[in-house]
Amino acid sequence: MKKLNFIFSLLALCFLLNCDSDSSSDDADDPNNCTEANLLLTQAQADFTDANQLNYTSRCNSYKAALENVKLVCGDDTGEIQLLINNLGDCTQNTNPSTQALMTANLNGEQFNDLKPNGFNLFNRAINIVTFSYANDDDYISIQGNSTYQNVIPNNLTKEITIYIPQSSWSIGTYNLAEGPVYSDNNVTPTPHYDLVYFDNDDYSGNIEEEGSITITEFDLNERIIRGTFEFSYSRTSDTDVIGPFDCTNGTFEYSLDDDYFD
User: Fold this and answer.
1) pLDDT per residue over 102-121, tens digit each?
2) Do 153 and 9 contact (CB within 8 A), yes or no?
3) Are residues 52 and 180 in the same domain?
4) Please, what's the b/e burial string for 99-114 (b: 16 or more CB within 10 A of its CB; e: otherwise)?
């Protein structure tokens, strides 16, 4: 099992990253100063939140640059900033109306019927191809379901499920859904795994993913579509306590295989 650190809202990044609030006025305007870097990030975030189709790419690039500057100046020990950078992709918009991306799930009794990749309404990108080279040699399809994908910036209501499906599972069948990448040592075949993130500002800052199962009911390279169902159990953690286990049920997914990888 693994424990995912809670990803705070960007407005709280200054506190998360141990910014130097005692900086002198001499370096207050220096982007290499952590406090100033976070002020620039806050402005870039606000601009990006109000982006439209005409200025999306430029504002996204500015926001991405501000994140990268905060990572450089303030550090990113937990990897949370890099995760935000990765979610922005290359800041281009795909306006293909035929692209499909839909996940449903019931998390501890709360039903979500419209989970999509974060920002899907802006860039219409269904999947990504990722690797976990430290564990195995497979390429993975990454499918994400975010409950507030329209807003790009997560809030206290945001729940996010990301499922990673290795090339060895790109076919119809039922597979173990692990809590992290499966190491291929001793000829062990990689299986799908997942991440679950709650963005609630409460005492339970992380999740412990338990094993579950995923069934791929359709994998069609001609129609460029992947469909299936999933379920798993998980617990929530604070610095001193663990609550749960809770269940994720009624998990379904239907995503276009729209990555250039399949061209």
Assistant:
1) 999 999 999 999 999 998 88
2) yes
3) no
4) bbbbbbbebeeeebee
Range of the domain at 212: 101-262
In this model, does residue 14 exceed pLDDT 50? no
Place of tokens 């000829």: 187
Whole-number Cα distances in Å, 242 to 118, 137, 203, 212: 28, 34, 10, 19
* pTM of the predicted model over 0.70: no
Cα–chain-centroid distance for residue 36? 27
d(CA 73, CA 17): 10
Q: How many domains does the chain have?
A: 2
Contacts 24+ apart (CB under 8 A), 108-114: 108/246, 108/247, 108/248, 110/159, 111/250, 112/145, 112/147, 112/159, 114/147
Same domain, 186 and 230: yes
Within a domain: residue 96?
no
Q: Which amino acid is at 138?
A: D
- Same domain, residue pair 107 and 56: no
Give DSSP secondary structure letters for 80-109: HHHHHHHHHTTS-----TT--EEEEEEETT
Q: Which amino acid is at 210?
A: E
Cα separation, 133 vs 43, whole angstroms: 36
pLDDT at 18 over 70: no
